[in-house]
Amino acid sequence: MTIIDGDTVDISNVNRQLPATQLNVGESKAKWMEQRLLAINPALKLHVIQEFLAPLPMTALLAEQHFDYVVDCIDSFTPKLHLIEGAVNRGFPVASSMGAGGKVDPTQIRVGDISETRHCKLAKMVRKRLRRRGIAKGVKAVYSLELPMKESLMLTDGKNYKKSAYGTMSFLPAAFGCSCASVVINDLLAAE
C-alpha cells in the first residue's frame, strides 16, 4: 500500500480526521497514518510519501509503479485531475472522492461513474476537464446528491492549488472514505 499526504495535522482537522488529535497538531498526517496502519497490521508493506502530489512527481510515481487500485481523496482540483487522468491513462482503476464540504446528510452519498454524477460542483468540474482530455467515463466517483450549504464556503490562501473550501461536517469525510474503501474491496474481490 502506498499513502501520500504532504499535509500536517491542523486544529480544524481534529473533529473529522482519524489521525488528528489535540496532541499532534502540526505533525505529518502521513506519518501518523503510517503508525496507525502498522499498529493494525505490522506485516503491511507500506510505502509512505510525505509530500503534496504536484503534477510532475505524480506523473513519475504513476509511471514507475503498478497499482491494483488508485483511491483519490485530494481536495485540490488540479492535483485531483492529474491523478485521475494519469491513473486512467495507465490502466489503473480509480475510485475518486468528490465534494463532502458543506454537506450534512450521509444518506445522499452515491457511487457511480463520473459521467453519471449530479448535484456536485467538484464532480462537474472534474467531469468536464476529463472529457476535454478524452476521458468521458470509467472513473468510479463517490459523490453526494446534497447541495452544499452556501454559508459554509471559506476562502483560503491559495496554497496547494486550493482557493476555497467548504467547511466539513465531522462524519462526512469518514462516510465518503468508507464508500471509497467499499468500492475498492468489492472490485478487487470481483476481479479474483
UniProtKB/TrEMBL annotation:
Example GO BP: cyclic threonylcarbamoyladenosine biosynthetic process
Stretches that traverse the bilayer: none
Domain of life: Bacteria
A Pfam family assignment: ThiF
Domain THIF-type NAD/FAD binding fold: 2-186
A GO molecular-function annotation: ubiquitin-like modifier activating enzyme activity
Protein name as annotated: UBA/THIF-type NAD/FAD binding protein
Native species: Nitritalea halalkaliphila LW7
